[in-house]
Amino acid sequence: MKVIKVINNNNLCVLDDNGREQIVSGKGIGFGKKYGDKVDPALIQKTYLITDSELQKKMIAMLGEIPTEYMVFTNDMVEHFKRVYPSKLNESLLVTLSDHIAFAIERKKSGIEFSNPLLDSIGEAYPQELSLGEYCVEQMRSRLGIEMSRSEAGFIAMHIINAKLDTKMSDVYDITKMINGCIEIAEYYYQEKLRRDTVSYERFLAHLKYLAQRLFQNKPLPQILGNDAVFVAMIKKTCSKHYKCAQCLQEYILKTYKKQINEDELLTLTIHLKKVSTETG
Length: 281
What we know:
Layout: E1 2-8, E2 11-15, E3 21-25, E4 46-48, H1 53-63, H2 68-84, H3 92-109, H4 119-125, H5 127-144, H6 150-165, H7 169-190, H8 199-216, H9 229-238, H10 240-257, H11 263-280
Antiparallel strand pairs: 1-2, 2-3, 3-4
Helix pairs in contact: 1-3, 2-3, 2-5, 3-6, 4-5, 4-7, 5-6, 6-7, 7-8, 7-10, 8-11, 10-11
């Protein structure tokens, strides 16, 4: 490895033997180094391979500001998430979560903590991501000696969701709220709580996530079922109660988020609602 940029005494930007730019960290690894120098592999404690040039610039800037201890901790958490999480996570997670964790710790040391108004909604729509957030908070306590509230687990979960969806953090907020709102409306419509322990509910929740993601990323919705007039008439007749519930969800999404869902989506929601309400009742 050859040095292409000295970030500080503990961090270097290097070019590896395959011509890839990497960031390496280690105590004193950058001391006295200059462009073109070789790096002693024995001094490397962490290696960060970031392919996106803009993310790499942000990473280099952060390494000059954030304590190495927090950076190493965040990297360990991201590696853990990647091992246990079923979906691919965007490489931006290391950068955004490092910045968030460092800032959250500094706030905590100053006696400032934020409550997360979405905590219950995140637990409802994204229980696995919240569980990972809780794991991270526990590791902050055991490894860094920093006690954080459960609200912080919710904020970390939002970063994981954002890295999964590869979208804006503001969209994560709206997506989570929309999913939770749809569930609340369905439960109000049927006048009973939907059972969370059924396959039908899991499929309904998965579809709401898919729908919300496409709406807030402005991606087109499928238009297949709605073209079959006979099928549409049959669903409206045999599942009229559930179709009306789907229309309630359509109205909520339009009024709250100014997003329109088509006939295909109404039919799909109707089928999911019929199944989930039958297993609840």
